Amino acid sequence: MINKVVVIGSINVDSIMHIDNLPKPGETIKMNSFSKAGGGKGANQAVAAARSEAETSFIGRVGDDSNGKLMLKLLKEDHIDTQHITVVPKEDTGQSYILLQKSGQNSIIYQAGANSLVTAEDVDQAQEIIKQSDFIVTEFETPIPAAIAAFKVAHTAQKVTILNPAPAVKEIPKELLKLTDIITPNETESELISGIKITNEDSLKKSAEFYHNLGISGVIITLGSKGSFVSLNGKSEQIPAFKVKAVDTTAAGDTFIGALASELNPNLSNIHDAIVYASKASSLTVQKLGAFPSIPKRESVLK
Ligand code: ATP
Ligand code: RIB
Q1: How would CATH label the architecture of 5-9+41-82+118-302?
Q2: Is 202 annotated as a binding residue?
Q3: Is 74 flagged in the annotation as binding?
Q4: C or N terminus of the chain, fewer CB within 10 Å?
Q5: Domain residues of the chain, as ranges?
Q6: Does 250 contact ligand 2 (Cβ within 6 A)?
């Protein structure tokens, strides 16, 4: 079965500065090279879902600039339904500036631009596609009121909601958490939200309990090269990552979520296999440079 996935989220053009190491405060360094790529957490998640063959639609905003045109073109090339992406006059498309170190570690600064203008009204306009979807995915590079509006529609229509609480936000409105079926923080985000530092299996289980007590039935904590931890319906397990050499981890988490939304049965019955698939997809992403250029197609994941 082909899943229908709706992503509400950010669209950015990524400017990637390839450097040896981060400059110290006050230090000036020369970059080794510079590149640009399509990115943004929401857009990466949508591209990952679409390349894993989900029927994917996007709710978001770009500016009326060349970056906006480029991003719409790239999303369409991946067969993503862009009819609910609003072009905002006199506004910049979102941009991220990525400092990519030789180790593969990145530091990201983003300019929200048009992403900050995504509203609950945008979601109202797209109600029908949410009602016809299987999964609705969102993150925090677009405003939370729009996420709440989207999850309300999804919840009433009994569709599965996936919240990627990134970039990290300390105080997530209870209203949003109550409407969330699956939450997917990484270790840092989880610690900020729950106050529980992740050091071992016990702390992972305690963290999951924290989210379950908020009414969230599915918890997936991603652990970078250590894999991920899942807790659902009274069962939990740690699923290892594939052993690869990472050159750029940008969009690893986004690929994981998009691939998961494409592979998971709407009744969540195949959660283990879907996570293994998502881990394989993100292990391919970290072996290539850039966000969009590194996100694999289903055929590569299954190889
Ligand atoms: P990012 O912000 O870099 O996009 P994230 O912090 O949201 O990512 P991570 O926990 O770093 O998410 O990674 C998500 C998944 O990607 C992991 O659960 C793992 O399966 C895979 N992954 C990440 N880094 C590596 C790596 N170095 N080697 C293999 N797999 C990796
Ligand atoms: O998660 C990776 C994404 O976060 C990048 O593509 C960049 O745009 C930042 O927003």
Answers
A1: 3-Layer(aba) Sandwich (3.40)
A2: no
A3: no
A4: N
A5: 5-9+41-82+118-302
A6: yes
